[in-house]
Amino acid sequence: MKFQRQVLATLCAMLAAGAFAQGAYPTRPIKIIAPVQPGGGVDLVARQVGERLQKALGQPVVVENQSGGGGIVGSQATARAAPDGYTLMVGYVGTHGTNPAVRKLPYDAVKDFTPIAMVGGTPNVLVVPPSVPANTLAEFVAYVKANKGKLSYGSSGPGTLTHLAMEQLKVSADIDMVHVPYRGIGPAITDILAGNTQALFPGLAAALPHIKAGKMRPLAVTGTQRHPLLPDVPTFEELGYTGFDGVQWYGIVGPANLPPAIVTTLNAEINRMLADPQFAERLSSEALQPMPMTPAQFGQYMRDDIAKWTKVAKDRNIEITD
Fold first, then answer.
1. What CATH number is given to the structural domain containing 91?
2. Which residue from 39, 179, 183, 190 has the highest number of Cβ atoms inside 10 Å of its Cβ?
3. Could you say which of 204, 221, 238 is where a domain stops?
């Protein structure tokens, strides 16, 4: 059965390549799957990229939200689609980073997809409520150690980036906190604002309004450099914690075996839009910064991200079975 699927995929790729050779791509509407419900970074990227590709390529680009399973439903639909360039998807840290690290998926997050273009990323930020007597990461670590096992942190769900990032910190700083998983980042934020949990590791876009309002105190951000929206908040790297370079990232992928000419066309157009200040300004509503890459660089980035979170999951014995 596996061999038959491989043969079928190869034949589809050959047919798609032949179709591309016979006429310019695209010749009909393109679909971009957003594997989440409307709203948030994934949806924003799908719609902004779709709008620009439609203008650049001269064909309609339709965004289709296919939520379910933390991105599994939309990812599976994409992996099964014909490799002809007419079904694309927003692959992000959930579908091609943390999910493969903690779940047994009905597809291979690397082999069943073609990396096309990275779009952008936003850091996660470690925040505490005003009730926690810590203004720096060092003070927070000392406070947690002095209250071993008594403090808790929230996350947007088991196996999500907000969960794994904190587990990474627990290992690196040798601290102990109780994990309180929620169904999404919204309820997790509600509880930390109420003082029911003592820490959270949300994406910057979700945390920023509360940071500006003084209801959350930022201690450190992930990534390789400080974020312009929080210029006074140091990175973990600056504070001596290596390996905290992960971000909530978003890119465009397609089914495996997409013809190289189509990948090149799409990558060039997306990188062109990333260089446009107006496009970057639209991404900033989700605190996203452009991260242009070649398809090869994007593919390596995804493999590295999966490896990073797989190690964290293994070290902390995290596996999601639902």
1. 3.40.190.150
2. 179
3. 221
